[in-house]
Amino acid sequence: MDTWSLLSICVLLGLTTRWAVSLNSYSGAGKPPMFGDYEAQRHWQEITYNLPVHEWYFNTTDNNLNYWGLDYPPLTAYHSLLCGHVASLINPDWVELHTSQGFESSAHKLFMRATVLIADLLMYVPAVVLYCFYLSEGSNRKKVCLVLCILLYPGLILIDYGHFQYNSISLGLALWGVLGLGLGWDMLGSLAFVLAVNYKQMELYHSLPFFCYLLGKCFKQGMGLCINGNFIAVTVLVTFTLCWLPFLTDPGQVLQVLHRLFPVGRGLFEDKVANTWCSLNVLIKIKTILSTDTQLYLSLAATLLAALPSSIKLLTKPTLWQFKLALVNSSLAFFLFSFQVHEKSILLPALPVCLLLGDLPLPAVWFLQASTFSMLPLFLKDGLFVPYAVTSSAFVFYSVYLLSALEHSSEEELQLKSLSLLPFLSQSPGQFYLSVAAMAGLSFMSVALAPPARLPDLFPLLVSVFSFLHFLGLLLYFNVVQIAEPPSPRRKNPKKTE
Amino acid sequence: MAASTADSWSWFPALALGVSFLKCLMINSYHSTDFEVHRNWLAITHSLPVSKWYHESTSEWTLDYPPLFAWFEYGLSHVAQHFDKKMLVVQNLGYASPATVLFQRLSVIATDVVFIYAVRECCRSVREEKGSKDLLVRPYFILAALLLWNYGLLIVDHIHFQYNGFLCGILLLSVARHLQGRHLEGAFLFAVLLNLKHIYLYIAPAYGIFLLRSYCFTKDNTDGSVRWSSLSLVRLIALGSIVISVCALSFGPFIAMGQLPQVLSRLFPFKRGLCHAYWAPNIWALYNVVDKALSVLGLRLKLLANLPKASMTGGLVQEFQHSVLPSVSPSATLICTLVSILPAVLSIWRCPRGARGFLRCLVVCALCSFMFGWHVHEKAILMAILPLSVLAVESREDAGIFLMLATTGHYSLFPLLFTATEMPTKVLLILLFTLYSFTSLKKLFRGFLLNTLEVTYLLGLIAVEIICEVVYPLLPWKQTLPFVTLLAKSVYCSLGVSYSFIRLYLSILRPTDKPKEL
């Protein structure tokens, strides 16, 4: 069959899965007084539609920052404004100032879900298709399979179409950034990435690799000839200025927005999340031992240390392969060691790992499944267990089946030929199955059994520690692959260096 | 694709599992009153003794399927009690707790395993020429995809809510058995099917004539006509006893209790109108429109005095009279149906073309019943589309007819899901199925299967949809003439269905070179 028809079928399958998941509940459904992320997004539409720009980030009588105050950068606000305009055209009650708080109806849900689908269709899906066809290797059939597997990644679907968020916009923009850089259009790539950062500040997790890659390319061209770098710097500055334009009139505005974006007063972590600090907290209560400032410096130091090797390697060898791996390593390091990390931030390393599905199928599928699993407590709170179970099973089954993940699991293909540092990985297929079985078991237990009275948080804790161990192990693995980098046995064409 | 060769059937579980995952994701979508119908039947069979099953009328959805289906619901009810006991209380009309929804949806998905097995058997019986080694272009792969991922089944079974997968599975399994030459099993399966849902009586003539002609008469004369002396009494008796024993098992208890008339009155309720609330795209839809057009014309031209206000698509099942053309009664439709299947059935008597000829006749009978039947549901088009898929992967002409019929028939199912939330689902899924069926069959037969006129007609379906969903609601007539969109869709689709019907009929009447072997 023609590639284009197979591709269309895969895209349609991805879209159908997304809409089917959106038929389920959303975060905070029917739970006054605070509701959840769905109400937060609706509230931002209300705020941006009704109030002038200079009040959006401030605590005023009309804008109570304690009730889902805006804490994403300006692009999110502009997007909410656009949605707010469309909402008021359909039904003004949806965005009426004050009175629309906690508004829930099936028509409104349809509208909100539709906005997510449209954003996804415009931003994320085209980027995925273009990436698979222009920046990945293999036959056309394999590229189509790759599109399907990336589109089936459950984490993003469940968060965006279940819990309710717009990660497809920020991740989509970041992916456009990768596309731009991979195809050699550095300025456009940088533009896309700056837009991504201005949509969600968590995209800064990806900023180190972008910076090191571009700087590395600059060095390679010779310091004096780095005209391109200057253009990129100008692009970045101009884009930032344009995005923040309404706020630049008053330095107080800028400070307040930054204060909302980076709430440093909130402590090392909140709730259960699969990173180092939360897991360490099980053994040593760090939150109580160290002061907030010490916690901040500790996490900063740890994050930078963890991200350092990968960034330096990328600086010295700025190729697309290195760039992809650096994206994974950097964002995973940030996730594991950074300050105030939420479990949804696992989507940030998950995106670059999706890009590695074609090259390192087994570790990628393993990571992606673990990332979905790590968000299980969140899905249970939202009533999304059935979609979680179905999409995870479908993802694991189809990626293993289509990408022959288990066939490419010999030591050689996992890039570990010359290393005996990680012997356990040579038993990979069996361990992968064991791990997936354990995840399935824990998932089932979380929903079927009640935790013992003394340990009410037992299951979320088990889930986050289990996921943390996986993330740590895979961080080590991806770092080893990036730094040691033996020549890949499967690549027939010599790698392009730019 | 994966390294599996086309000879290993590992792709089959992948296809089946994929569609099952999709079905699981649809659990929370809209379900129609058929959901309550089946919940009510679970309650009736579980809570009441057998003698009351066909007398119970607390709910308006009385038991109107044959006894075997009632026993099937009885079996399901024993699993249901572990999900939510309250659904089994007859008085709980409209009860739809999350556990109830979960159970009912899962029961449809689980019983689809019969359908999956039947598809596998059909795929094994498909003839293929030596073609490319590419898995995606093999007839059995395409057939599996067309059947397992059939749009109509997904929409009707897993959203609207019915058990067609289970029933069509038995039908396809019976067809597969006949294709494989295992006729007694096929007959048994059909007898079971008849006792599960009596609508399949319409295709019983195809079975009856085929088995009589090709199974009971073991030899033919050299010119292909029947050799009366070769009647095998053993086979005849075997067939008869199978059918009778299945029916006895099913109806026996009720005959013993003297309830047969009551059961039959429940199974054949002729009080309903000529057309269902949404007109199935059949002959009577065209008939109604012509009648309405003539009456309007007659009024304009002052040829007629005042006419009764006819409301044919008010959304409820109603009786109505035709104004200009003669009114149609149930017996008239029965006669029309019988007359229409007669030539087809006679042709496989006089010129049997083996199991494939029988299959063709089966599809024709199903389509005849759809075209001329009384109170036909548009869902009944599936009875024709699914078996036609088997023929479509073997013959170029049948593939063309299939594309017309399937696309038109599937589009005519749109009004079943009228909620806005289901709009993206039904549009995405129909695009998926239509795109796949067109591209795969085109690749299989290496060339275009439809002529320009047919393609234009099918593209017109998109125009009809846009006009009905987007343009018409903005017009002022929406309040006064709300049924116009349904009417337009129904009439437009009946053109396509009638066209496919005629082409299929011609293909069965066309004489072949020699009778093929059984």
TrEMBL record, chain A:
One of its GO terms (cellular component) is endoplasmic reticulum membrane. The chain crosses the membrane at residues 110-132, 144-161, 173-197, 225-247, 321-339, 346-368, 388-406, 432-452, 458-481. Keywords: Endoplasmic reticulum, Glycosyltransferase, Membrane, Signal, Transferase, Transmembrane, Transmembrane helix. It comes from the Eukaryota. Pathway: Protein modification; protein glycosylation. Pfam families: Alg6_Alg8. It is found in: Endoplasmic reticulum membrane. Its EC number is 2.4.1.-. GO terms for molecular function: dolichyl pyrophosphate Man9GlcNAc2 alpha-1,3-glucosyltransferase activity. Residues 1-22 form the signal peptide. It catalyses: an alpha-D-Man-(1->2)-alpha-D-Man-(1->2)-alpha-D-Man-(1->3)-[alpha-D-Man-(1->2)-alpha-D-Man-(1->3)-[alpha-D-Man-(1->2)-alpha-D-Man-(1->6)]-alpha-D-Man-(1->6)]-beta-D-Man-(1->4)-beta-D-GlcNAc-(1->4)-alpha-D-GlcNAc-diphospho-di-trans,poly-cis-dolichol + a di-trans,poly-cis-dolichyl beta-D-glucosyl phosphate = an alpha-D-Glc-(1->3)-alpha-D-Man-(1->2)-alpha-D-Man-(1->2)-alpha-D-Man-(1->3)-[alpha-D-Man-(1->2)-alpha-D-Man-(1->3)-[alpha-D-Man-(1->2)-alpha-D-Man-(1->6)]-alpha-D-Man-(1->6)]-beta-D-Man-(1->4)-beta-D-GlcNAc-(1->4)-alpha-D-GlcNAc-diphospho-di-trans,poly-cis-dolichol + a di-trans,poly-cis-dolichyl phosphate + H(+). It is a multi-pass membrane protein. The keyword Signal applies. Belongs to the ALG6/ALG8 glucosyltransferase family. Dolichyl pyrophosphate Man9GlcNAc2 alpha-1,3-glucosyltransferase that operates in the biosynthetic pathway of dolichol-linked oligosaccharides, the glycan precursors employed in protein asparagine (N)-glycosylation. The assembly of dolichol-linked oligosaccharides begins on the cytosolic side of the endoplasmic reticulum membrane and finishes in its lumen. The sequential addition of sugars to dolichol pyrophosphate produces dolichol-linked oligosaccharides containing fourteen sugars, including two GlcNAcs, nine mannoses and three glucoses. This is Alpha-1,3-glucosyltransferase.
